[in-house]
Specification:
Structural class: alpha/beta
Number of helices: 20
Oligomer: single chain
Helix content: 40-55%
Number of strands: 17
């Protein structure tokens, strides 16, 4: 079989439990639901990390955070770690990216390696396809040349803001948030990127390009600030039109970016929780609506039958559950349980729902195995790559025995911001702690086995949840189920050891500058030597 086209779509900050295909009764997600119904849906897909940078690094390398060592915004992917796009490019693929997340598209972290074309819709001076404008061709060339010049000037500045602790803390001021989030295109231009991508695919069809295509798309729609079009707010939260207090709550949250990831000093009041939850759902509905255009375009292509399309999230988002907002510090399902949907019509001929827990880092192995040719320069074991493809799990032969592992390294820029503003929350929420978790089906009979999650905090077992009976993780059953805890702890230790062996000594980039007090605390917790 010829090499398939590969479409890799990351729905940044998309929780699994807010899609109709994952059981959300109030969801307005007909396009993703249809895609899931016609393909493969993984019911317990677990992200290897809880925020953008380590999660993307894992999906681009197939490694867990401890192994690839890119856990902070100041770090970059080592040249010794082959990037998915680099490998596919050497395997004969045309590699193109349409990206809306500045942490992926702007920072000098190695995430753009291997892409022949990288369109970046985030940042102060986006890089977009020149033929997506209506300007005459000569004028388009002039504009493109000028924007490339501005981009060369602006990228070092934007990298400073993305990696500097001082600049990050300045950006968290409420008066500054509305300015930088718009000027810097913090959430990108998601709908436009999908429209441009659909146009790119149509033009590529007309040219009858013979090379197989690897296409990466990152969408930031469901990340705060929440500003969906009015029509989607009216569908999900019509009460906002007549409720001034609710509108004030949303405006305040959209301005105060510090609160987007800080633990809550007090629980959200009922109206605040409802507004945040509903506006998140409105963003999900809006994203689904414009994704419909892209999914239709993919189906109409000549090579549609031999196209592997992977739709996944890098992580979810906390909306007040467990005392937390955003996706910085905890290992609960609202952050780690993500959608994972696949279609490959000529290979996966029958729609299927897979209940086996799987790590989403394995999209790396799945796409490489589908491509079928691993260049020697990638220095990868083809047997291991083939063994870890999710296609094996679809066929009932899961190579990781139904265990998904995850590592939560807190973003230290946020840790420092909390230390300046609300230092008492650092200890209360253990914001400096490294968390590790395993999700596993537990039970002698596979038909009746329940997924459980074991969470370890700083080398100490902390919580055990029965995810079938308690999907909101509200009842810790660690003490009362030792017969489950013991084998899961053994499994967690096994994973921790295996990942540590993969680490080796590679350059992981510059570390964030820390004061003496913070350095002592991090050293005491094992972050630093």
């Amino acid at each position: 079989m010829d090499q398939p086209d590969i479409i890799f779509i990351v729905l940044d900050t998309q929780r699994a439990d807010r899609l109709g295909c994952y059981g959300h009764a109030e969801a307005i997600t007909p396009n993703l639901d249809k895609f899931a119904a016609e393909g493969v849906l993984f019911e317990q897909a677990i992200s290897p990390a809880q925020w953008t940078i380590p999660s993307h690094a894992s999906m681009f390398t197939g490694l867990y955070p401890t192994a690839h060592q890119v856990t902070q915004s100041s770090q970059s992917l080592s040249p010794e770690r082959p990037h998915l796009a680099e490998i596919l490019r050497e395997s004969g693929y045309q590699t193109v990216a349409f990206c809306n997340n500045p942490l992926v598209g702007i920072l000098n972290n190695g995430f753009k390696r291997g892409f022949q074309t990288f369109y970046n819709y985030g940042g102060a001076i986006p890089s977009v396809p020149s033929d997506s404008t209506t300007l005459p061709r000569p004028l388009r060339r002039m504009v493109e040349g000028y924007t490339q010049f501005l981009r060369r000037i602006s990228y070092p500045i934007q990298n400073f803001f993305g990696q500097s602790d001082l600049a990050f803390r300045l950006s968290l001021n409420a008066w500054f948030t509305p300015i930088w989030s718009r000027v810097a295109n913090f959430k990108g231009q998601n709908e436009r990127s999908v429209r441009d991508l659909s146009y790119f695919l149509q033009k590529r069809e007309e040219k009858r390009e013979e090379r197989p295509l690897f296409l990466f798309l990152n969408l930031m729609e469901t990340h705060l600030p929440f500003t969906p079009p009015t029509e989607f707010i009216d569908k999900v939260a019509p009460y906002l039109r007549g409720n001034k207090e609710a509108r004030t709550i949303m405006r305040r949250w959209n301005r105060e970016s510090y609160r987007w990831a800080a633990p809550l000093a007090e629980p959200l009041d009922p109206l605040e929780a409802q507004v945040l939850s509903d506006l998140y759902d409105a963003e999900v509905a809006y994203q689904d609506a414009y994704l419909g255009q892209l999914l239709d375009t993919l189906q109409q292509r000549a090579n549609a039958e031999n196209t592997l399309t992977v739709i996944v999230a890098d992580h979810g988002d906390g909306l007040g559950e467990h005392g937390c907002m955003g996706h910085a510090f905890v290992a609960y399902q609202e952050l780690l349980h993500v959608p994972l949907l696949m279609q490959w019509p000529c290979r996966f001929k029958t729609p299927k729902r897979v209940d086996t827990p799987v790590s989403t880092r394995r999209v790396f192995h799945t796409m490489l195995d589908a491509a079928g040719r691993l260049p020697q320069s990638a220095n990868l074991d083809p047997v291991r790559v083939h063994g870890l493809t999710l296609a094996n799990t679809v066929l009932g032969r899961d190579p990781e025995q139904g265990v998904a592992y995850s590592e939560v390294y807190p973003p230290l820029t946020f840790v420092k911001a909390i230390e300046k503003r609300q230092p008492e929350l650092l200890e209360r929420y253990r914001c400096l702690s490294v968390r590790r978790a395993v999700v596993q089906q537990v039970g002698d009979d596979k038909a009746t086995a329940n997924p459980h999650k074991l969470i370890q905090v700083d080398e100490k077992l902390d919580e055990l949840f029965d995810l079938a009976d308690d999907p909101l993780e509200s009842v810790n059953v660690l003490a009362e189920r030792p017969s489950i805890t013991k084998p899961m702890h053994k499994e967690l230790r096994r994973w921790e050891t295996a990942v540590s062996h993969q680490k080796n000594q590679v350059n992981a980039g510059t570390q964030i500058e820390l004061d003496d007090n913070m350095t002592r605390r991090l050293r005491a917790l094992g972050y630093m030597e």
